[in-house]
């Protein structure tokens, strides 16, 4: 059965992204396209798919060589975060710093995970909601890209959004409505599909989108999922680019 819980731990997530899904790259070969422009394209696509977005997550991650604590302190200073604190999670030392989303300002969480005597894995997550200023989020996204690149981390990123759908439709019908909204704007080719009593999920090849991932024999650019809550009957909609990496 498809596992909908994709956030069990920092290191587990890193392994899912790096090993299970292989590499992320520019789907159209537009290497000169800025990361901000790519994000704006994905925002436009998700806005067209759902009526109201309630949650946005951008996740940057990559491996680095050096001292994890020093890297965490460097990133925190450049991103305007508090001094990192050392915590223990999933059997690893993690240096963490974060600020919560507030009003129009996005939240930022930075984790530098110790992976060896001279290695670390860094995850920088940007979060927002319907009140977050999209231009400010895009600028912050580009700042993270530059900061990681300058510190020697070859990082990749993914984008996920969530919102609510109609409560009078099944998950499959809700997903079909979203496909209908986007099919006139994008060349969507379903590659992987999953359904059960409360969940419908489809991964697509969409050549127009700028980020992609290799999954088995498929190249994926977007995943859409709908999960119907047993208690309320409401539908939770999730879009992921190139795939969903949060709970749906």
Summary tags:
Double Stranded RNA Binding Domain, Dihydrodipicolinate Reductase, domain 2, 2 domains, ten-stranded antiparallel beta sheet, about 25% helix
How is the largest sheet built, in terms of strand order? 3-4-5-6-2-7-13-12-9-8
- What share of the residues does DSSP label as strand, in percent? 35-45%
Low-confidence stretches: 1-31
Shape: globular
Pfam family, one: DUF1779
InterPro entries: DUF1779, YwmB-like_sf
Organism: Paenibacillus xylanilyticus
Protein name: TATA-box binding protein
What does this entry look like structurally?
- With 248 residues, the protein is of the alpha+beta class.
- It is built from 5 helices and 13 strands.
- A hairpin with a 2-residue loop joins strand 5 and strand 6.
- Helix 2 (35-49) packs antiparallel against helix 4.
- It starts with 9 loop residues before the first helix and ends in a 7-residue tail after the last strand.
- The model is unreliable at 1-31 (pLDDT under 50).
